[in-house]
Amino acid sequence: QSVLTQPPSVSGAPGQRVTISCTGSSSNIGAGYDVHWYQQFPGTAPKLLIYGNSNRPSGVPDRFSGSKSGTSASLAISGLQAEDEADYYCQSYDSSLSGSRVFGGGTKLTVL
Amino acid sequence: QVKLQESGPGLVKPSETLSLTCTVSGGSISSSSYYWGWIRQPPGKGLEWIGSIYYSGSTYYNPSLKSRVTISVDTSKNQFSLKLSSVTAADTAVYYCARHVPDNPNYFDPWGQGTLVTVSS
């Protein structure tokens, strides 16, 4: 059971917009700690996609955006492309777990 | 740019100690701006942070693994290492090392390619 809750799967057709939620609590996201998002293709290492809630590292398309409100965060992908099919993980910090860095359970994005 | 590479045995027997090393290239592990971390991913499952270390040797560990984990650093070799004792089949996973941007924001970037460690007799 992950401290951060994500839907196991989401799907969308090419060109559509999808969002992936990441729900936490008052000891992590709700306490003001930043949320970060990673993209992982099968058999490869995760790659930082969004950091500090809404910032994109160099090279990440602006089709990817992040937001945070209250105890939740969201990753939005607009103009969905077949190459976006991957697993997505959110990550934050939890003050109730002796300073543990925590991940969501991951969401599998399927492009229909 | 900074690159990380994990190395170590791919097979460990139950009750023994798992040992991995991460070699950092393209940058100094002694940078004052970063920690260096280990994250693992059991087959078909999600990510779990194991712990992180500063070049001075200061460490943070996941409370659920703290009693079995030791992370150390060798600045002369630009490497940091992971030891996980008393392993069981539940410790079978791909182990990643990553540069850890600390405090708030607190994220991991970049990551090594990962190495699969199987615990089996």
Q: Care to describe what's here?
A:
The complex is a heterodimer of chains A (112) and B (121). Chain A has 112 residues and is mostly beta strands. Chain A has no helices and nine strands. Chain A has strands at 9-12, 18-23, 36-40, 47-50, 64-69, 72-77, 86-94, 100-103, 107-111. In chain A, the strands form two sheets. In chain A, strands 1, 3, 4, 7, 8 and 9 form a six-stranded mixed β-sheet that branches. In chain A, strands 2-6-5 form a three-stranded antiparallel β-sheet, with no helix packed on it. The radius of gyration of chain A is 13 Å and the shape is globular. The N and C termini of chain A lie far apart (28 Å). The relative contact order of chain A is 0.33. The model of chain A has no long low-confidence stretch (mean pLDDT 95). Chain B is built from no helices and eleven strands. In chain B, the strands form two sheets. In chain B, strands 2, 4, 5, 6, 9, 10 and 11 form a seven-stranded mixed β-sheet that branches. Chain B is globular. The N and C termini of chain B lie far apart (39 Å). The mean pLDDT of chain B is 96. The chains are: A mainly beta (112), B mainly beta (121). Chain A binds chain B through residues 2, 32-34, 36, 38, 44-48, 51-52, 57, 89, 91-93, 97-106, and chain B through 37, 46-49, 52, 60, 62-63, 96, 100-101, 104-114.
Quick structural summary:
Chain A has strands at 9-12, 18-23, 36-40, 47-50, 64-69, 72-77, 86-94, 100-103, 107-111. By secondary structure, chain A is an all-beta fold.
Descriptive terms for the model:
heterodimer, A: 112 residues, 3-stranded antiparallel β-sheet, 44% strand, globular, B: mainly beta, 4-stranded antiparallel β-sheet
